Amino acid sequence: MNKTVTINLSGIVFHIDENAFELLKTYLEKLKAHFSNTQGNEEIVADIESRMAEMFTEKNPDVNRVIMVADVNEVIEAMGRPEELPGNEEGSLGGINSDDTLYYESTKKRFFRNPDDKVLGGVCSGISAYFDIDPIWLRVIFAFSIIFAGTGILLYLILWFIIPEAKTTSEKLQMKAERVNVSNIEKNVREEMESLRKRGEVFAGNLTSEEMRARARTSTQRAGNFIGDVLRAFGKFIAAIFGLAITAGSIAVLVGLTIAIFSGIGVFKFAVPHAVTNMVLTDSQLYWLVAGGILAIGIPFTLLLLNGLKILFKVKLNLRMIGAVMGGLWLVGIVICIITGMGIASEYKRSATVKEIITLIPMASERIYIRALQGAYDEQDSHNDFFDDLFLLDDEADSVQNRMVRLDIEQSENDSMYLVAVHYSRGKSYEHAKELAAEINYSYSVTDSVMVLPNYFNLSTASKYRGQNVKLILKLPTGKAMILDKSLGGMLDDVDNISDTYDWDMLGHEWKMTSEGLECQNCSDEPKRRTFRKETTVNIDSTGVHIHSEPSSNY
Questions:
Q1: What is d(CA 56, CA 71) in angstroms, rounded to the nearest whole number?
Q2: 8 Å CB contact between 33 and 85
């Protein structure tokens, strides 16, 4: 019964018979002695050990199987016996056994990336070695495939990832379909060493050659100059785009500012007519705003325009001096705009109302019909409206129509039906506001049982607009009924009624004033009601906790 020994051969663990171990040990020692004086001897022996480990693994796939003497002899016969290796000066190997080797010593090619002839990852040279073609053709194909949506790059990266690199001499021989034995391993290692020696000599010669050093410096300078030229060209392109953008933007803002100024002072009509501008601003406010706007808005964009032109056309401008002067003028413009804005705001600081009570002529009918008279805003398809549809300038430009007219309906304190018209305005003082409120021209008409209420009032363009509006309150006696025409849409102002119906849902129905309020007489469907939320107040005193809830309408 023989002992078994556990060995590590080229990183792989094997169980080997004691006699087979002695035979393998003697074989490897003879190989090391044979190649002791050969350049690259350690790499040669390591590659031989690696190949023998592969052959043992192929012969004994079961890791628990013991390698016997016969297995070692078969591997030695395939690799070549040391005593058959001649010891000539070149160290070339002869006497290698014929091609009739064991079944696992095949010359089948394997796919590897070739590290000895690579441009990037050795993919093309590895494929060319497998198919025995020139790698230059594969490289050309991959280069042309880049223009097809970059498919060549993607395919190359995938192959680079999945194809292993031929790192050992054994793998390099298998890549070329050469037999992996001692002779070929030594030959391959010698070729690699010789190639490295020649490259080293060429490199050393280049380092000592003044001409090569000059060429290297010239090549480096050219590469640096090329990269610098590319970066400078890219920077100039970005600067040109930036210059074009700020130039175009500045021109657009300055043109818009010019149009607004000339339109405001009445040179030509554009956007807001001069007549409307004159109703909002006084002449002094308008001209101060123009001056402030030119300085506060025009100066920054003028500087941007100059910088854009300087970038685009390489114009030499002393922008430091210009910028300092314009910076001071810009601050002056900001101050002018602030002061003028405060003056305009002061025109709205007071408010006043003028109330007019008109008793209506008693009507024979118990039911009145109320409708609205539409202004030019509703009748024309095209119109000029300003300030959130508050103004409409008519063709003659001597008046505007203000659509801020609201209608409420309340219970009369007596048996009479009358209309309360409240004219409201703001102004720089109470007297000024009351004067503007009195200038409001609002008229209505009553014919038989039909009341016509215009949804607008007129303001003269010679007057000033200070937020004028009209609030109409129709006082309806108990027992009187009315029909609200749908033309009143937009005029009703939160009219209270028993059913809490929305203003818009009240239109088109008959409503009767009762002691409790307005009641719908012909609402067949359930009217939409306003929702309520409760406001709760909690008071804590010496008598206890008191909770009080009050409904609050929520629209």
A1: 8
A2: no
What is the rounded CA–CA span in Å between residue 41 and residue 299? 83
pLDDT tens digits for range 483-514: 999 989 889 988 999 988 998 999 999 999 99
Report the alpha-carbon distance of residue 377 to residue 402 in Å, rounded.
Answer: 10
What are the phi and psi torsion angles at 406 (to 5°)? -125, 150
Question: For residue 389, which amino acid is it?
Answer: D
Alpha helices in 366-464 (DSSP H): 376-379, 430-438
Asked if 294 and 257 count as a contact pair (C-beta separation under 8 A), the reply is yes
Counting Cα atoms < 13 Å in the Cβ hemisphere of 157 gives: 6
pLDDT of residue 90: 40
Vertex 551: Cα angle to 550 and 554 (nearest 5)? 145
Closest CA to 128 of 143, 114, 107: 114
| Mean pLDDT, residues 403-431 taken together | 91
| Residue matched to tokens 């680079």 | 160
Task: Quick: pLDDT tens for 462-475.
Answer: 888 888 999 999 99
Distance CA 120, CA 160 (A): 9
**Which helix H or strand E contains 374, and what residues bound it?**
none
Task: Name the pTM for this structure.
Answer: 0.48
Nearest CA to 264 among 275, 274, 253, 254?
A: 274
